[in-house]
Design brief:
Helix 2 packs parallel to helix 5 and helix 3 packs antiparallel against helix 5. This protein has one domain. Helices cover 80% and strands 0% of the residues. By secondary structure, the protein is an all-alpha fold.
């Protein structure tokens, strides 16, 4: 059985500070790519995109189970079972440090990284084409 205590979550996704740093980095990558301060060549971008896709696929597989954690478990109908079910549900999805929101944050961060990478690859292609056109002037002058 998986350990979903704070220690288990830290092992799976990192601690809260690491998640915040990942979100900040993803946003910065996206901003840099949009402004043209970051570009990446096709080969490198393809490898990075593949790694991101693999992680997204794994998270999608896990996501089916994560969605189950949003629902109150069926422990029974007596008062104690209802109390325990409510507690379990609150532990999984009650605030930004609970498992479900942390999982969604990781997925969102990967989405931003993928978008930044796509933009950075297009910026590299555009700058490469511009450089080729510019340098072609010198070749044509010979």
């Amino acid at each position: 059985m998986a350990d979903w205590t704070e220690t288990g979550l830290t092992a799976a996704f990192g601690d809260r500070e690491q998640l915040k740093a990942m979100a900040s980095t993803a946003q910065q990558m996206l901003a840099d790519a949009k402004s043209g301060r970051w570009a990446v060549d096709e080969e490198t971008g393809t490898h990075l995109r593949r790694a991101i896709s693999q992680m997204e696929e794994r998270l999608a597989d896990i996501g089916v189970n994560i969605q189950r954690l949003r629902r109150r478990p069926k422990f029974g109908n007596d008062d104690y079972a209802q109390q325990a079910a409510a507690h379990f549900q609150a532990a999984m999805d009650s605030d930004q440090n609970s498992l479900v929101p942390v999982f969604e944050t990781v997925r969102e961060n990967l989405k931003h990284i993928r978008e930044a990478l796509d933009i950075a690859m297009s910026k590299y292609d555009a700058s490469d084409e511009a450089a080729t056109r510019y340098l072609g002037k010198f070749k044509d002058a010979e």
